[in-house]
Every structure is written in C-alpha cells, then in structure tokens.
Amino acid sequence: MKNVFRFGLPFMLLCLSSASFAQSSDTDAINKFISKQAAAERGEEYEGARKVVKGDLNRDGISDLAVLYTIEGQDGTNNYVQYVAVFVRVKDRLTHVANTVVGGKSYRAVELQSIKNSVIIFKVLKDETNDATSRGSKRKVTRFALVKRRLKEL
C-alpha cells in the first residue's frame, strides 16, 4: 500500500498539473485570437458573454472547441456583433480554423448550447430576420458545421 502512494500520488499530481496547463494554454490561445480581432474592429470583447463548448468538429475523435464571443463598441458606437470561432486540437495545441458572425444588434441574438454530431447548436433568443425556410415563424435553433475550414449555417 505504501508503494501505491509513493508511485501513484506523483503520477496523479503530474496528470492534474498537465491538465491545468492545457486549460491555461487553451484560454491563452482563445484570448489572443479574440483580442486581435477586437483590436482590428476597434472594439472590445464583452467577456461576460463568452461561452465555450467542447466537442469533435472535424471528426478526428479529439475534442475541439467552439467559442461564442461578442465584440462591442466598434469605432465608439453602441453596436455589438456575436461571433463563433472554432479551434481544433492539433498535437495537443488549439489552432484557430474558422470564425463567422452568428448574431448582432440588428440581426439576432444567440446562445451557444452544444456540439452534437460535429454540429454547433445555438438557441436563438431574438431573431430580426425573415427566414423563408421557417414558413414565416421565427427560428428557435440554428446550427453551424465546419466544412472545409469554413463555418456553414445549416
């Protein structure tokens, strides 16, 4: 029993520290990408609205990340735009592969729900669009898939 603690405990601590390092480097990669985009748009991220979900988006069996984030105040306005960015894991590191607009002030408001079967699912909170495919009613859910390194609304 003494040997279990002698060898098992250091191994468990090593695993826990590497997991927290991965989370830290994941957060750093996401922060770097979003801050670069916010600067390019001359706006700021509303960090309280950021949401991250895990799931396999490129069908390689490894969990990737979808990140919903909001950039507001572009050029001093009261506008805001919601984006989703996709980061895939390559050799234990996150790599940004795609991002697109999913909502905004005069467009719609969405909430990131999950990733299922390589599809990102959003709940539509407010919709200002007239979507002919929904037969006149407002859409309650919208979905995006990663297709050839681009996000496509389904």
Key terms:
154 residues, globular, 4-stranded antiparallel sheet, single chain, 5-stranded antiparallel sheet, alpha+beta, 1 helix
What features would you describe in this structure?
- The chain is α+β, with helices and mostly antiparallel strands.
- The chain has one domain (2-153).
- 25% of the residues lie in helices and 44% in strands.
- It has one helix and nine strands.
- The protein has one helix at residues 2-40, and strands spanning 44-45, 51-55, 64-72, 80-90, 93-104, 108-116, 119-127, 141-147, 150-153.
- The strands form two sheets. Strands 1, 2, 3, 4 and 5 form a five-stranded antiparallel sheet that branches. A four-stranded antiparallel sheet has the order 6-7-8-9, with no helix packed on it.
- The longest helix has 39 residues, at 2-40.
- The radius of gyration is 19 Å and the shape is globular.
What's the structural blueprint in terms of helices and strands?
Blueprint (H helix, E strand, L loop, with lengths): L1 H39 L3 E2 L5 E5 L8 E9 L7 E11 L2 E12 L3 E9 L2 E9 L13 E7 L2 E4 L1
Antiparallel strand pairs: 1-3, 2-3, 3-4, 4-5, 6-7, 7-8, 8-9
